[in-house]
Predict the structure.
Amino acid sequence: MGFVTGQALTTAIADAMSGNRRDMAVAYWGTGAAERLGIGNASGVRILCDLWSGCCNPFELERLIAAGASVWDSPRLHAKVYIGDSRLVTGSANASINGLGEEGETFEREAGWTSDHLEQLASASAWFETVLADAAPVADLEDLKSWWTERPRNQRPSASTDANPSLLGRVLANPASLAGVGFVFVDTMSAAAIIQEAKNVASRDVANREQEIVGWNPRNMFTEWPAATIRRWPGEFFEFYLGSRGQLTVSAFRLQVRSEEAEAVFCDRDWRQIAGPLGLGSAQQVSQADAELATEFFQRLGSGEVFRSAQELATSIRRLVPEIANGRGV
């Protein structure tokens, strides 16, 4: 047990991953990660990552999945935790060239802590299972591969492209600038009885949050969604709600509780913290700018839908409203 840096850190991680148990809650994955970690045969490997962070190479993840690994998306994950049979390593090193380096030499000054203490290993394992239970299994990497191939190189996505307040315009023009954010389209509101039943079921389904759930603001709940959709619900997202009178409202939410049993998610509104860093204007400005396109998209979509990423949404808009790709509307 002790503090490790540089090559010693890389070696400790590889040693931890040399046994039967290989669980990794590591936010970012780069080219060659499997080789550096010694997991070319990835059977039984479980990986938690922040898939749409802009720092996960989908082709490397695809290789890991093909080699037997299971991958889950945990939005806003920033941990670097490696859990083996009898060793735990945690610190600053992602599964990337910068984190693990070439031949043991890291490009960044990475540091970490390694332990074979049983209680610490058990605590880390329990934490891993908790995060895993709230993550979405990764099955399709095609949208991320498309974005990764077309993303701007040698620069971070800019927060603001121009003075146009259209969020959907940004989705189409520069989805990379919205990495890590999802989108939910809703055109119906659940009846009060259904909302109450969802609270009742979720309060039994989600441990230690019963009282919170019972008192949750119905305006911050999303109910009557299939369990498969609940599993892939984004951690931060913009809601496009088209009311019965055709008025569009755009809001920003952060996921707090999900319950597949109740077919519901419970969220907090937070426009300032989610939209602000992206350089967006007010919710009202965005709603007005996107009203026409969103309404047309809703009509062709036919029902509510969840999109895990801006690239996924852009693909759907271009498929359902092809004239947008030719410059109409944005």
Summary: Residues 50 and 76 are 6 Å apart (CA to CA). The chain has 13 helices and 14 strands. The chain has a mean pLDDT of 85.
